Give the backbone structure.
Amino acid sequence: MSRIAEQSGIGRATLYKYFPDVESIVMAWHERQIAGHLDQLAELRDRAGTPGERLASVLEAFAFIQQQQRRHGHGGELSTLLHQGGHVAHAEQHLRHFVRDLLVEAAQAGEVRDDVSPDELTGFCLHALAGAGALPSKAAVKRLVTVTLAGLRPQS
């Protein structure tokens, strides 16, 4: 805590006023990161365009977020610590709802298959794209998004 106070230019007493320990600082930082990611995805969801275009933008951004997290050390013990809070479950639920809503809109517009429930398609998309964290390049992430979107196409 002393080192954090020194490097941030905040007095130790002030730091302790807001955070009892390093773990609480890391958790607060993580909550802000997640909120920022959700804001980014919501902005893409709310842009102009067809539901299918907006869905593709959201899914691609989600995949790149997954890749970025892995590159920045989201794994192992740190990941376990950061994902214990209720903020992660709330964020995942929020993400599922708005991806599901986009899928429903896209299905109604004939851009996404309607022979599989929106809940199942949401799970498919999010689970498939979580794998982007292990991919070595942006091109690989884009290919994964392309394959995922192909699985959503309406049956001919």
